[in-house]
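seq as requested:
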Amino acid sequence: MKLVIEQNRNFQETEIIIRCSSINSELQKIIDAIKISSFTITAYKDGYLQKINHEDICYIESVDEKTFIYCENDVYDCKMKLFELEETLTNSSFVRISKSCILNIDFIEKVKPMLNGKYEVLLINGEKLIINRHYVPIFKKKFGL
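struct tokens:
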């Protein structure tokens, strides 16, 4: 693989061009990383519309058909459905942990298995979340357990 970077003050915006004969798994990972690195979610707080970078999100939860985005210190209301966000965040640090919650594994401080087959995670902001038994295998693979 050859990497060429052109830097010029005359360029108005960054453009990434990939030239290849076929897309293999290594190249697909690079493409996914590029796509997710520029991804932001539009959400509301106190009546104001804000863009939230995906790396600032601890977890996303759906409650009573409303989607909430939880960051370290703030909670936002999002108009997107949970399944739409899950599809968009595929191949990122996000993983579904229950029917109503998607977790960013980068915010996990500790993981503890429970007696009933579920897992408990402690986030860096002190919140605790439960990983449903059905989602444990997916979580373990994503988290590297």
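The mean pLDDT is 88.
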